[in-house]
TrEMBL record:
Species this protein is from: Butyricicoccus intestinisimiae
Domain of life from the UniProt record: Bacteria
Gene behind the chain: mrnC
EC number: 3.1.26.-
Subunit (UniProt): Homodimer.
UniProt name for this protein: Mini-ribonuclease 3
Length: 147
């Protein structure tokens, strides 16, 4: 039976993946890690989990987190990141700038690449550094209540 939960790929197979294909995988990896973090941190209501997840997985939060992990990337990781940043998706969401979306795509491509090669410890290391910056960005985006 094929293990689709841990779809390890060879270096040669990974080189054949486009940056957008890596970002496609990395998007789900990043969201799964975010959801795992939120559940582990004690959020229990579906409304709170969903709201917080949306705030942390958006392009702006990922772009903020990208700035935090850039200094710690290896040469190979920098190459994947750069290719992801330079990928040209067909559209960008209205809720983010082109620059934010490019950085978010870079993070997702990197996370997809690391996941597909089985570098789970490195994913956790980068996510741990990225998360506080993403949280700070998300916290600063919330509208204030008028009362």
């Amino acid at each position: 039976m094929t293990d689709f939960f841990h779809p390890l790929m060879s270096e040669q197979a990974l080189k054949q993946c486009s940056s957008l294909a890596l970002a496609h995988m990395g998007d789900s990896v990043y969201e799964l890690m975010t959801r795992g973090y939120l559940i582990h941190s004690g959020l229990v209501t579906n409304k709170n989990l969903h709201r917080k997840t949306i705030h942390l997985v958006c392009a702006g939060a990922q772009a903020a987190g990208a700035q935090a992990i850039l200094p710690m990337l290896t040469e190979d990781e920098q190459t994947i990141f750069r290719h992801g940043r330079n990928a040209k998706p067909k559209s960008t969401p209205k809720s983010s700038s082109v620059a934010e979306y490019a950085l978010a795509t870079a993070v997702e491509a990197l996370f997809g690449w690391l996941y597909l090669q089985g570098s789970y410890d490195r994913l956790n290391e980068l996510f741990t550094v990225l998360l506080p910056a993403a949280q700070e960005w998300a916290d600063n985006q919330r509208p204030t209540r008028r009362g």
